[in-house]
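re: the backbone from monday

yeah here it is again, tokenized this time
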């Protein structure tokens, strides 16, 4: 038989070319020859004209059959030579290798295949796999179809003898080369390959295959996964109750997803109910699972660690090791945690521990389960890399902390602004009656200057919390930096210079000019300190077009046109571990008394509130570069109208102001300041008192001057009620919070103005007077 001759595995000369002929082609050639002969015979019988036509057609068919015969023979000879050349290589392949036709009939088997399948000649590829894999036809058809389309296909399957990798290559259009390779045939796997139960699960949790260990465990051939694990779904790396032939057993489960919706479920029996498990959990069995697993005694000594655990922890087991020497962090000593886990009534909970020997922030999640073995009570620890999870937790905790600090800063700023308003306001009242020749004038100046410094510090707190009041306007950045250059050079000192390089075609931007200047001064001062007062600080400003969303430092800069402002120094640089903390409030690398830690937090707050982005790059010992990106605007710069100065003589004594302020010191200062300017002031300590005063229809009120946040009714609420009866009254809101803190709360109140605290005597009187000029 030809296929048997081809399987000989002997020198290539024994391979016949006939085995390469496609039977379908042979039948087609024979049919053409028969039909051609029939047409020639018919030509001898019929009339002359019809006979000529039939003869011509018959000769055509005979010609086709001849050409087809010759072509098929040449093609078969080519395939025969190709197979002979391949056989010289395949003969010495250590893996069993077969060559089959499209119908699966085997035409060649190498020497390794003969040793693997010694029981007689192989007629088909299915015969080769029948001994190791139940019903292989579906698998073979699937792989052959993939190889026909893609050129090759491969799949790892689990057989009764262990793991097998089956690979098929398209040899030519009508034949295929099959290769069977044992996977993971190391000593540990050879010893325990049949000792670890394994199930192959299809769609609907149907059990497609069980190895010998699984059959022995179940004592039967269940058809569905529910018959083995009643509590579904299974969690890979977790423990689940399995139904064995001897009763419920606690098992460590691991799942591997395969193709075509199939899964492989490995499970390691740990406990037999409440009874002692038969045998010990060996390291060779644990090595079969890609999970990191440790065996521990009650005091934490590592009795065994599989390969995955040794790789995860970066250890070897050449010397005794204890878990407490490798991991730390459950909030108590590791030995106490292990002792507690051995108690019968303790619920097992995983812990996140830090790996001591990692040299960085490397965390593992550790789950413990009790194991009762022949040599006593033990613990089985399942480890998984939790570094990414802990990183996300730290980022979330940091964002929560920043939010809490921001809210705290906003609240503190409100209280401080009330105090500073009273301090600076009464100082202004005292200075109105003194000149520079008075003995206490210099003391009053000091009080006022320090109050202004305190107000600036409060402004930084509000900038960090992004609750400061901004007055955005369209700016020419080249003009802003040009005006600021002289001041910046004075800040850095005589031995340093601030070099400003601005693109001549720079676009406009929208920001609060005063706050933008504060940002530039903070960055330049930091650069000066980093360079020790010597060298150059470079400020560059250019246009930058972002054509695709730019992801950096956990933010995404959307597509658009931006102004890129860079402040660069050649100072000491920032260490990598400190680089991500520089924008945190109160974090500073300066010595005590040299910095508040609010400078860069202020920069971050102002830039973010202005709709921009700030990034930092630094190399320790070489320098630092801060990059600010602001959205570009195409709007022209508006000319600022010069406000008309109010004529105090015309309005003195002609206006009535209802002052509503819950802080008595602020109310006292504001009342006295307005009276000195000629206004009639009616005071109220809260909104309810103000509404009670307004019930008098004979009372004439021109301006409501009210705090925003007060006990009871807030400012906008009581003002709306009052305007229902007095729609022509003007309104001035004052607050220690930013105007954005109650954004939208007074939009419906026509011609209302906002005056942030702390305010000076001049600012208060001018704002109220402006309302009379509207």
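seq for it, each position gets an aa:
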């Amino acid at each position: 038989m030809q296929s048997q001759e081809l399987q000989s595995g002997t020198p290539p000369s024994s391979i016949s070319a006939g085995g390469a002929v496609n039977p379908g082609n042979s039948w087609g050639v024979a049919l053409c020859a028969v039909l051609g002969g029939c047409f020639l015979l018919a030509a001898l019988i019929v009339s002359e004209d019809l006979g000529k036509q039939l003869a011509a057609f018959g000769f055509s068919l005979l010609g086709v059959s001849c050409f087809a015969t010759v072509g098929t023979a040449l093609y078969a000879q080519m395939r025969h030579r190709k197979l002979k050349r391949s056989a010289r290589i395949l003969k010495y392949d250590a893996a069993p290798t077969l060559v089959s036709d499209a119908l699966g009939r085997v035409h060649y088997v190498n020497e390794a295949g003969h040793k693997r399948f010694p029981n007689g000649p192989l007629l088909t590829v299915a015969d080769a796999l029948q001994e190791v894999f139940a019903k292989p036809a579906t698998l073979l058809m699937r792989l052959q179809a993939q190889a026909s389309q893609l050129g090759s296909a491969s799949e790892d399957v689990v057989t009764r003898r262990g793991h097998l990798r089956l690979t098929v290559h398209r040899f030519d259009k009508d034949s295929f080369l099959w290769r069977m390779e044992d996977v993971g045939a190391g000593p540990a796997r050879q010893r325990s390959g049949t000792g670890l139960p394994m199930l192959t699960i299809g769609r609907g949790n149907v059990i497609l295959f069980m190895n010998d260990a699984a059959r022995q465990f179940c004592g039967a051939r269940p058809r569905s996964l529910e018959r083995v694990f009643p509590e579904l779904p299974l969690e890979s790396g977790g423990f689940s109750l399995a139904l064995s032939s001897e009763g419920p057993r606690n098992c460590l489960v691991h799942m591997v997803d395969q193709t075509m919706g199939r899964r492989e479920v490995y499970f390691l029996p740990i406990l037999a109910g409440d009874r002692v498990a038969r045998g010990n959990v060996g390291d060779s069995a644990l090595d079969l699972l890609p999970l990191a697993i440790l065996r521990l005694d009650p005091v934490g000594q590592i009795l065994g660690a599989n390969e995955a655990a040794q790789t995860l922890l970066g250890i070897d087991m050449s010397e005794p090791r204890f878990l407490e020497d490798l991991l730390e962090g459950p909030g108590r000593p590791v030995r106490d945690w292990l002792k507690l886990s051995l108690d019968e009534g303790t619920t097992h909970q995983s812990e996140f521990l830090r790996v001591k020997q990692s040299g960085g922030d490397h965390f593992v999640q550790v789950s413990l389960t009790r194991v009762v073995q022949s040599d006593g009570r033990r613990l089985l620890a399942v480890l998984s890399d939790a570094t990414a999870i802990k990183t996300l937790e730290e980022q979330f905790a940091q964002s929560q902390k920043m939010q809490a600090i921001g809210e705290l800063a906003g609240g503190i700023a409100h209280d401080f602004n009330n105090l500073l308003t009273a301090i600076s306001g009464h100082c202004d009242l005292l200075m109105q009656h003194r000149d520079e020749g008075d003995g206490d004038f210099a003391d009053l100046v000091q009080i006022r200057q320090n109050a202004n410094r305190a107000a600036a510090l409060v402004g930084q707190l509000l900038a960090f919390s992004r609750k400061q009041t901004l007055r955005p306007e369209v700016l020419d950045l080249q003009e802003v930096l040009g005006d600021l250059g002289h001041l910046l050079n004075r800040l850095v000192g005589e031995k340093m210079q601030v070099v400003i390089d601005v693109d001549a075609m720079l676009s406009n931007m929208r920001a609060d000019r005063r706050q933008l200047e504060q940002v530039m001064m903070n960055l330049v001062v930091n650069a000066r300190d980093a360079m020790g007062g010597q060298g150059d600080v470079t400020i560059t400003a250019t246009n930058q077009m972002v054509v695709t969303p730019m992801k950096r430092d956990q933010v995404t800069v959307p597509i658009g046109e931006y102004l890129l402002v860079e402040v660069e120094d050649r100072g000491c640089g920032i260490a990598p571990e400190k680089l991500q903390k520089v924008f945190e409030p109160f974090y500073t690398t300066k010595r005590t008394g040299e910095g508040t830690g609010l400078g860069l937090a202020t920069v971050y707050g102002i830039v973010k509130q202005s709709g921009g982005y700030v990034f930092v790059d630094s190399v320790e010992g070489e320098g630092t570069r801060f990059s600010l990106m602001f959205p570009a605007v195409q709007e022209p710069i508006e000319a600022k109208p010069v406000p008309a100065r109010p004529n105090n003589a015309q309005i003195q004594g002609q206006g009535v102001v209802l002052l509503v302020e819950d802080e008595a010191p602020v109310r006292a200062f504001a009342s006295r300041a307005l009276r000195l300017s000629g206004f009639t002031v009616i005071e109220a300590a809260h909104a309810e008192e103000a509404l009670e005063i307004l019930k008098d229809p004979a009372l004439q009120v021109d301006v409501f001057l009210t705090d925003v946040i007060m006990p009871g009714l807030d400012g906008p609420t009581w003002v709306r009620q009052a305007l229902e009866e007095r729609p022509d009254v003007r309104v001035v809101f004052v607050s220690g919070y930013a105007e954005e803190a109650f954004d939208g709360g007074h939009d419906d109140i026509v011609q209302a103005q906002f005056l942030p605290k702390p305010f000076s005597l001049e600012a208060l009187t001018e704002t109220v007077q402006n309302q009379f000029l509207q």
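The chain has five domains: 2-177, 187-389, 390-464, 477-633, 648-773. Residues 390-464 form a domain with the Helix Hairpins fold (CATH 1.10.287.130).
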